Amino acid sequence: MKRIPVRKRKLRAGGKVAASPLRVSPVAQKSVTAILLHGRRGSLHRTIESLRQSDCVKEIVLLSPQNIDSPEGYSVLRASSPDAMETIRAIAAAVRTRYVLFVTDTGSVDFVRGGLDRIARVMDDSGAGLVYGDCHDGGDGIPVPHPLNDYQLGSIRDDFDFGPAVMVDALLLRQSMLEIGGEDYRHAGRYALRLSLSRHAPLLHLPEFLSCREAPEARSSHERQFSYVDPLQGNAQKEMEHAATAHLRKIGALLDGPASIVDLDEGTFPVHASIIIPVKNRRRVISDAVSSALRQLTPFSFNVIVVDNHSTDGTEKFLDAFARRDARLIHVVPDRTDLGIGGCWNEGIAHPACGRFVVQLDSDDLYMDETTLQKMVDVFYREKCAMAIGSYRMTNLQLREIPPGIVDHREWTADNGRNNALRVNGFGAPRAFFTPIIRRIGFPNISYGEDYAVCLAISRHYHVARIFEPVYYCRRWEGNSDASPDDATRMARERDKDTLRTAEILIRQKLNGGEK
Fold first, then answer.
1. pTM score
2. Is the distance from CB of 86 to CB of 99 less than 8 angstroms?
3. Which of 123, 124, 143, 127 lies closest to 135 in space, CA to CA?
4. Distance of CA 119 to the CA centre of its chain
5. Among candidates 344, 334, 346, 282, which has minimal Cα distance to 310?
6. What is the pLDDT of residues 331-349, one digit of tens each?
7. Residue 80 lies in a domain
8. Based on the structure, what is the number of domains in the chain?
9. How far apart are CA 117 and CA 120, in angstroms?
10. Residue 506 is assigned to a structural domain of this protein
């Protein structure tokens, strides 16, 4: 190993200062096998040329669904799918280098000079099981920076963005194949591998721009957010759930056994149910939401608590006027000015007018008809649950259906839904809670993922009921807080939800005695 002097110094005995040498690994020569997906010929050629510039790449292997000629410079491994477990096993058996570089984009990927050598050196020095770096998205004009998130304990969703390439320790790859055993995944092979690697070594993110890829195919925020509820993805989702459940069991975070039922007679309340609407600057749509809530027909008493987070667009005046006409509308303006949506929910559930059950209605949305509140409350008595969740239809402001249409979260199962919820992006809507329990748990004071956090917390202990018929219109328009977020916003939201998952996994591990 080469020794070089460094600036860091230490005191010798007697107070004299001496240089402290640091041992640095040389570039790992010819230590990497690069695995490419079959793509367009021009893009493939550009990626191969970039790989050839690296001193650490020994071999280039193309995965192809059919037999093709192997031009000089790379070999071909026939594989039906890069996500199939049999493909991962074939790669593990064939590789003879120390590391494997999985190039997961089918468009061209151009690695910066020394970028792959940098990753290989970090793997040498750190003992990481997988390393990935930031990238640029190419296209017309100047490439756009695409920074990625750090991987953490809670990053177990199957759509985590690693960028266009990851480098994996080949020894750990083979060990993972032994650990996964005979699972014959057709869709979840790479996902199961990643989870296995994370159990044995760090998955390390280098916050450095190490590659530039072709601009990825545009996917709407709806497609990204709701792919896991697409009925056409059913088989793939079942495999992903199976892999995630096995992972949670191995890390000691799986919830087994029956969930608790609740005593619905606990406490006294002024009304039987409250519809809670947090709002800020939604004058254009809040009238529809409030009218939808007050149109509900029930044999029990209910009210509508609108928590107005200091609107400045006329929302406050409208709500004051509406409250004077209908005493069931309670207009609450918090004392604090630093509340997110979760903090506004806490104001609503703590209000003395709050009912025995609270039902969500976002300020953009509508109940499907006058029976929604009744249906949501009925399910509590039918199933003795702490939380009930309905299904919704995605529409525009004019109630014309837009993709993905009906979102019913049929991936939820009574026996494993609370575990699978750690893998997916949400629980659904509308959400309804038994007030004594939601008061004890409370919402985090955030404005994205606050509902996900409390649903995870409730499902940890209590039975969650589902209504698989649509009872709610979720309206999308340009004013939505989650309408077409840019990459930076999307990545920040994904990071924040991963952090919520990390906390939840730690809690569940503690509940299980901290044993794997």
1. 0.89
2. no
3. 143
4. 26
5. 334
6. 999 999 999 999 999 999 9
7. yes
8. 2
9. 5
10. no
**Residue 112 gets which letter from DSSP?**
P
Say which amino acid occupies 165. Answer: A
Is 209 found in the same domain as 123? yes
Boundary (domain end) residue, out of 218, 233, 258:
218
pLDDT over 60 at 276, yes or no:
yes
Q: Are residues 428 and 361 in the same domain?
A: yes
Residue 369 to residue 220: CA distance in whole angstroms: 29
Q: 183 and 292 share a domain?
A: no
The reply to whether 229 falls in a domain is no
Q: Where in the sequence is the domain holding 43, given as residue range(s)?
A: 32-218
Q: What angle do CA 352, 357, 360 make, to 5 degrees?
A: 95
Convert the pLDDT of each residue in 18-57 to its tens digit.
343 434 445 557 899 999 987 677 788 899 999 999 999 9
Which residues partner with 2 through β-bridges?
24
Residues found in the chain: 516
CA distance 243 to 102: 20
392 within 8 A of 428, measured Cβ to Cβ: yes
The C-alpha atoms of residue 248 and residue 245 are separated, in whole angstroms, by 5
If 0-12 CB within 10 Å is exposed, 13-18 middle and 19+ buried, where does residue 7 land?
A: exposed
Same domain for 208 and 315: no
Do 471 and 372 contact (CB within 8 A), yes or no?
yes
Q: From the CB of residue 311, how many other CB atoms can be counted at a distance below 10 Å?
A: 19
Residues paired with residue 166 on neighbouring β-strands, in sequence order: 102
* Same domain for 51 and 146: yes
